[in-house]
Amino acid sequence: MSYGLSAALQTALFAALEADTELTSMVGTAVFDTMPTGTTPDIFVALGPEDVVEQADGTSPGANHDLQVTVVTTGTGFLGAKQVAGRVSDILTNEDLSLSRGNLVQLRFRKAKARRDTTDGSRRIDMWFRARVTDDI
């Protein structure tokens, strides 16, 4: 297996988050494929790093993608960030995502870490998901 499905997976994840009306009612258009710089929205979602390992099953090439999605807010307390993080988790684990290449076999929540940034007072929730993908080539 190669890293060949990574772009297709990222595109599908990003599209699912952008298309969800409940999430957009919470964050507007503040869904990014990288951490924004400069002046940031009061609350936003950003796709983060991923680790990928080969996971062929003997019949088709495949990989496990451990990926991070982050919610950041400058608001007081964690409630708003947790509501957004919960919606993101629901979208990613309940959607039937279609990839432009290959197949998403499973996408599951692995863990999360919520913390306050002591330098600027923002709240941050990092969530990790595991996507199992297979390729048709």
What does the average pLDDT come to? Answer: 93
Please state the structural category: alpha+beta
Largest sheet: 5 strands, mixed
Strand content: 35-45%
Uncertain stretches of 5 or more adjacent residues: none
Shape: elongated
User: Care to count the β-strands?
Assistant: 5
Computed over alpha carbons, the radius of gyration is 16 Å
Describe this structure in words.
The protein has 137 residues and is α+β, with helices and mostly antiparallel strands. It has helices spanning 6-19, 21-27, 79-94; strands spanning 31-32, 43-54, 62-73, 103-116, 123-134. The chain has a five-stranded mixed β-sheet.
Structural topology:
Elements: H1 6-19, H2 21-27, E1 31-32, E2 43-54, E3 62-73, H3 79-94, E4 103-116, E5 123-134
Parallel strand pairs: 1-2
Antiparallel strand pairs: 2-3, 3-5, 4-5
Write a short abstract of this structure.
The protein is of the alpha+beta class. The chain has helices at residues 6-19, 21-27, 79-94; strands at 31-32, 43-54, 62-73, 103-116, 123-134.
List its salient traits.
5 strands; alpha+beta; about 140 residues; 3 helices
